[in-house]
Specification:
With 214 residues, the protein is an all-alpha fold. The protein contains ten helices and no strands. It folds into two domains: 119 residues, Rna Polymerase Sigma Factor, Chain: A; 67 residues, Orthogonal Bundle (Arc Repressor Mutant, subunit A), CATH 1.10.10.
Length: 214
């Protein structure tokens, strides 16, 4: 217990130092300092990318979303108010919003492709599925590399959660966000976050029990 407490304290200290450095960089970015923007980019985009990979599933969409996030940071740095929340919370809120917009665009695109494929038979006389195998496949290398490092069964169970439930679990565990921070990121009431977390944990427990996960 003592060792765990020491590890937790160490992580908190690292996070606090990172937050301080981020605030200094944001002040410089607000004044169009490109070097500060570059430092912030390399400091935060790995975390943002991991979060977005859980949301978007495709490397090319993640890259696009990360670029959208950082463009927003460059353009809106002067609007960030530390009194309203941590910098990481603000960044993940932007990332969540950009990710959802890309998902909606992807959904519309897939619907259009499906409609066209159903309207026009393929050369071999069969209707193409119009579904991207990478989207539904479970052995995508990127998803494996960027996935949760908590065991095959938990990764499998996480993939079966709804987008809303998977997002709150991801933010709570991987990013150690509080309910209030998750509410700010996802733009929903704290009680909604708590409800999603409750149902997400319950669903995970049921799925892992079906796999006899210890």
């Amino acid at each position: 217990m003592i060792r765990h407490a020491e590890q937790t304290q160490g992580l908190n200290e690292i996070a606090q130092e990172s937050e301080k450095q981020g605030l200094l960089l944001m002040g410089k970015i607000a004044n169009q300092d490109r070097k500060a923007f570059e430092d912030l980019y390399f400091g935060y985009t790995p975390r943002i990318g991991r979060f977005l990979m859980k949301l978007l599933k495709k490397r090319e969409l993640v890259d696009e979303a990360v670029n959208d996030v950082m463009l927003a940071v460059w353009q809106q740095a002067g609007r960030y108010d530390p009194a309203q929340g941590k910098l990481s919370t603000w960044l993940f809120g932007i990332a969540h919003n950009k990710g959802l917009k890309l998902l909606e665009r992807q959904r519309r695109h897939q619907c259009e492709e499906t409609f066209l494929s159903q309207s026009s038979p393929s050369e071999n006389g069969q209707e193409p599925s119009g579904v991207d195998a990478e989207w539904i496949g479970s052995d995508n290398p990127e998803r494996t590399v960027m996935g949760w490092e908590m065991g095959e069964h938990l990764l499998w169970a996480m993939e079966l959660l709804s987008l809303e439930h998977r997002t709150v679990i991801e933010l709570a565990i991987n990013e150690q966000c509080s309910y209030q921070e998750i509410a700010l990121i996802t733009d929903c009431p704290v009680n909604t976050v708590k409800t999603r977390m409750f149902h997400a944990r319950k669903k995970l427990a049921e799925l892992l029990a079906s796999k006899d996960y210890p």
